[in-house]
Write a structure and sequence with these properties.
four-stranded antiparallel sheet; Creatine Amidinohydrolase; 4 helices; six-stranded antiparallel sheet; 13 strands; 27% helix; alpha+beta
Amino acid sequence: MSYPKTDAEIDILREGGKRLAQVLDVLEELVVPGVRTDALDLKAYELIVGIGDTPAFLNYKPEGTSRAFPASLCVSINNEIVHGIPNENPQTIQEGDIVGIDLGIIHDGLFTDSARTVIAGKGNERAKEIIAVTRKALYAGIDSARAGAHIGDIGYAVAGVVKPTPFVIIEELVGHGVGHSVHEEPLVPNVGVRGNGVALEAGMVLALEVMLAESGKGGIAIADDDFTYITDNGSRSTQIEHTILITTDGAPEILTLSKSEHV
């Protein structure tokens, strides 16, 4: 369970989230046509180790997998939703690709997690639209994550943004608690009923992540590498994620804000 963190732990997570966002800021600028995914992974490793922290994903073995994750960074392109392996059979990013970069770090023993989806090059209007909807839905979910609310309120808010659009929530993939490990309880679905689920308490730290497909019914499949989730119909997809802190009152605090999100 993502039990409320202590004040000392929250201070560490704030610093870890800031550092993670700064690494992702650098990586986001490097997502351009012609770059190889293994080069992005190597840069992520160098940046994290260079600031004295540890890549959270490297050698992490999630429950149910046959092996540990072999990279520091997840890079997922187009129909790859999440957990793309960048350094085994590396890909060269092409003009217009939708690219997800998902990263976690361990700072002073505590974990933060964040992901962005960007377009390599100019892209098309449809790609820009699905990324914008994903971001708007995530922020709606974040805004609903307040002390006294419930997990179901988050999914209800996310779905309320996506439902009027042509895009589809990938319901089988969800957010989660974070802090003492990469994944903690509770799970945070992107659909829900208001007032249902675990009650949110001040001091809880959650990684909220919205994943959308461009078309279809949101079905998924697992690639032969045992990690990469792909859309079952080949449609392009997105993932945007922030680590947040539930505060004593008012809006939650986003711990992994990018430089473009700071006012």
